[in-house]
Amino acid sequence: MQTNNKSEGGILSKVFGRSESTTVQIVRNACVEGVRYLTNIAILWYLNERLFGPDWLALSTFLASLLSGLLNYALCTIWVFHKRERGAGRNLVQFAVFTLIGAAGLGINIGITTVLTNHCGVYFLVSNTVAQVTVFFFNFFMRKKIVFERKTETEGLKD
Fold first, then answer.
1. Quick check: 48 and 123 in contact, CB under 8 A?
2. pLDDT for residue 82
3. pTM here?
4. Which end of the chain is least crowded, N or C, by CB within 10 Å?
């Protein structure tokens, strides 16, 4: 008996299968960012409250974002966009561009967190949450357009 591939796996194929839908990718990215956010907040809390103290908020924010960003790249590549470049050189370039976009997002994050905390009197975790939401949309659309929708040289030759 022949089955329709679209119905095979049902919801699991929709959740875990390849998708070019921006809506699906945003939902998946939200899940990935949720994991990254919780990781970031836990690390930020530990660094700010237990290790460095509030005078080192920018450093704490930087380190928390860096560590949680490593997890983010892996999950975005494997699950959100399903796009890995072939060859070590291309993977390195893809990771470098992904990281540069993240660095720009990190600058936005640090700026918002610092301004809201130090100049507006907002509690640092609330400030960081506002920054995280802003950076979520910045990173998603920049990475989708620049990192994961770029045509490779071989794809360009096929057209």
1. no
2. 76
3. 0.64
4. N
